[in-house]
Amino acid sequence: MIRFLLGRLVASVLVILAVATASFLLLHAAPGGPFTTDARRSVAVQHAMEERYGLHDSMATQYLRELGSLARGDLGRSMKKDVSVNGLIAEHGPVSAIVGLLGLATAVILGITMGVFAAWKKNSWVDYLLMTLALVGISVPSFVLGPMMIAAISIHLGWLPPARIDGVSSYILPAITLGLIYLGTIARLTRGGMLDALGQDFIRTARAKGLPERRVIWKHALRVGILPVVTYLGPATAAMISGSFVVEKIFQIPGLGTYFINSITDRDYPVLTGVFVFYAAILVLLNLAVDLAYGVIDPRARRT
Amino acid sequence: MKSRAWQRLRQNRMAVACGAIFLAVAVFCYLGPIVAGLAGLDGTAIDTATGATPPSGGHWFGTDTLGRDMLVRVMIGGRIAILVAVVTTAIALAIGVTWGAVAAYAGGHVDNAMMRVVDALYGFPTVVLVIVVMSVFETKSIVALFALIGAISWLTMARITRGQVLGLKHREFVEAARAIGVPAHRILLRHVLPNAAGPVIVYATLALPQVMLTEAFLSFLGLGVQAPLASWGTLVTEGSSQIVVYPWLLAFPGILMGITVMSLNFLGDGLRDALDPQAHKLR
Hints:
The complex is a heterodimer of chains A (304) and B (283). By secondary structure, chain A is mostly helical. Chain A has helices spanning 2-29, 43-52, 59-71, 85-120, 125-139, 142-156, 172-198, 201-208, 213-225, 227-250, 256-265, 269-297, 299-303. The radius of gyration of chain A is 24 Å and the shape is flat. Chain A starts with a helix and ends with a helix. In chain B, helix 7 runs antiparallel to helix 10 and helix 8 runs antiparallel to helix 9. Chains A and B meet through helix 1, helix 5, helix 6, helix 7 and helix 10 of A and helix 4, helix 5, helix 10, helix 11 and helix 12 of B.
């Protein structure tokens, strides 16, 4: 297990390094320099600005300097506004994180419940209904569902605010829209894991010693049945990040996703690549955590 | 063996119905505009005087804010969406099958290294990378869209192919081919891959809806299919900003896209169950 985790740690560092290198190369391959604008500047000013950002040094020097500042946790500065990427993340990240975690919680709690019931009542109408719902959920894109929910729930019924973050109730619709992106996948994975678990010997033992069925399902089987969902948390977070772009756009939430997408139209490349490195780092850390959690939940995984 | 799988598929009424629905949508999108053209509708005629009108006898799906017929626009959007899905899936298929087959057939350290790459990419924000690449290069070309979505969608395909080839590479007919000196690439192409086709087809079917959603997602962010071309993704984006005033602008492309993605998902599931009944019990 230790060997395995060490291997994963090395791989994680390599992934971050690859991401940093890719974003460095992308920045330099971008058409036009960062200061190519319509504004007329004298050659001297242009030169001074380029000098300030060290654009006259050799590629290798710039690359090493970039890696050095990254190692110190500095993700770079915006080229359009006088802010650092770290500052942007500190300012806009928390809102995105809250919406993301609420969405994940919605998806995990509902998805696992659906999956457990479907496996419990295998091949009954409950199973078919839940699994059909799960597949429908996977198939309807969030940018169709989100606006429809706004129109129905916020505008026609007036129950929840249609946009912007203003009080607790305004988190509900964005969290549901975001959660529905992977709710279906979690339900399907749980069903599969539970069916797998319910066929194993330790379940027969638990039943044989007279445990109530509810306890067998929710305590004994779920612990093993949940493992595919734990593995999926990495990809789920990746989906959550890209989903946040859509959800924050639909609900006009001033989160990191909105800022990231805005920097596309602003052509603020350092922000694009800086936030990209940040996203990659989050995912890499999360995948490491998932590997650890795997060993905690399933003692059998520790032996390998 | 194959015919038994076919029989199982036909018994799965849901999957068969969904296959028929997908075909119907494809025919609707590809032949529809021709028929509509005969009726004097062409989705590009701008009529700002009428503007957005709700569905009526003349315009079954209504018109958009520029007075263009939504029925034809939805059909043409479907053409692009299906085209993008098929082409990018084909690209993903080519990369994934090659990667998985080479890894499995080479084995050892090569296999290990190649599959670690796949593992690493699995937990990687590939869609975000596509966004960064597309915006940094300011590319608006649909070919770049094909290539980039294809380049991030091959991971599952590589795993599936690897699993299949691992199971096949020590079978007697492969040993026999090797014994008589058939070169490795020929063994893979002629003897191994044709036998791995089933699961690969299943996952290609399941990749189609996935890729379709990715394209719509990029279009929603303004990075996908660009005007004057329109895919379901771009139509949905236009519609979602007008949902309260002109709900039909979102409803028709949104529902049609949902139906298409859903029918492909159900069809793929059915195909998987038919080829591998064991999977039905578990997954």
